[in-house]
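Hallway conversation turned thread

IA: we were arguing at lunch whether anyone had actually written out BACK domain-containing protein end to end. Turns out nobody had. So, for the record, here is the sequence (475 residues) and right after it the structure tokens. Reply here if something looks off.
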Amino acid sequence: AAKNEVHIKYVLQFKLLLTNSPSLPSGLFSPTAATQTNSNFEQVVLEEEFLHLTVEELTDILDREDLNVQLETTVYEALTKWISHVPVQRKQHLTALLSKVRLGLMTSDYLKDHVLSSELVEANSECLSMISNAILDIHDLGSRPFISALYHPLARPRLPHSILLAIGGWSGGEPTNDIEAYDCRANRWVNVTNNLECPRAYYGAAFLNGYVYSVGGFDGVEHFNSVRRFDLTTRAWNEVAPMHSRRSYVSVTVLNGFIYALGGYDGHVRLSSAERYQPELNLWSLIAPMHEQRSDASCTTLNNRIYICGGLNGNECLQTAEYYNPESNQWTMISPMNSRRSGIGVIAYADHVFAVGGFDGNNYLRTAEAYNPHTNTWNLVFSMLTPRSNFGIEVIDERLFVVGGFNGFTTTSDVEYYTALTNEWYEACDMDIFRTDLSCCVMSGLSNLTEYTFPRDFLPLEDVLKLAMESAEST
């Protein structure tokens, strides 16, 4: 709901901008408006006002490195929609606009079946030549894997709108302070560690108002109630107000501008207590306790509720789950999961609550299941490629990622993602370090987002093409 509100806000600003400035030439967009349009391009394209852009404005948008599109086919379909609105006057711009599309990021099948066969392209010899050359280049580039994307602009990935951060955890028998940023458009990890920060594991991470918060945790000696805030611009850590309780193995999520810390282990007992942080007041406040004591659980937010699933109560791995309603300050039990799961990953995805992996008391799990809040039922989905517990989990680019963890034999660095459209898991690029008991969060809207992305000039085209094909298959 919050994401839709943001889209609506930006679309209304887009409409207002065009309404108030219908005759402005190229350069219409202020930096802020351009950023909003780039970030919400797929939504903006659906609006009537998109069709009234000038060719200069559309060219500038399509040429942007930070244009937020999951598939390059969206860019092609947007430009053909714009031309088809007034075809007689606009078809003369097809060649110039098509040159701004990263044709090398499309599949050969799409180029043949949808681009070459379109009436607009068939009537334009320059475009026919451009597409034909792109198809040949895609085939040729596959046999020259070490050529950089710098040398072929048609296959240069655009910058991501959001970045997945993997923070801290346990590696090599001790806690780590490593921070790695995952660039989903390049399928690469970038190390952005601040070595001045103390190592920490078994904590929770949250992104709120441009900062990353590290909540609670354990360093091998002490269980923390302290909370650290990471400035993504300066990469400096600062301490904010501490929680009421020490909490390692804590579950953390964000709802309506608050950070919630649920359950955990204080060094003596597993906790049922919960609290929330208001950054404007730098204040933690206790909320109603959960029905269960839960450490090593995981939580997420869906439809203005906080769901927490599984965990350990001190005696057994839990199968139970419950949700919190902030309006009534009450917890309600829901149907239990199909499996007991401690060290679980829980995330809202595709309008369901997904419960993934973990440890059931005997085995490390590959299985995953999804909760439908409308029917109060859990249904199994396709299992992960690798069993794992105590891993990071997040959703980015409409894909559910699981990161690192313990696979039953060793700590791992491997990463995979799930897409609901195919109900399958796919391999992604491994992290640079192996670690378990880490936490992940997704950050967006940063002015310095490029500092967290992989340099395009050093990205082998073989990887670019492979990623483009996998994205097309899973979307």
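OS: looked through it. The first strand starts at residue 162 and ends at 167.
IA: good, adding that to the notes. The chain has two domains: 2-148, 162-452.
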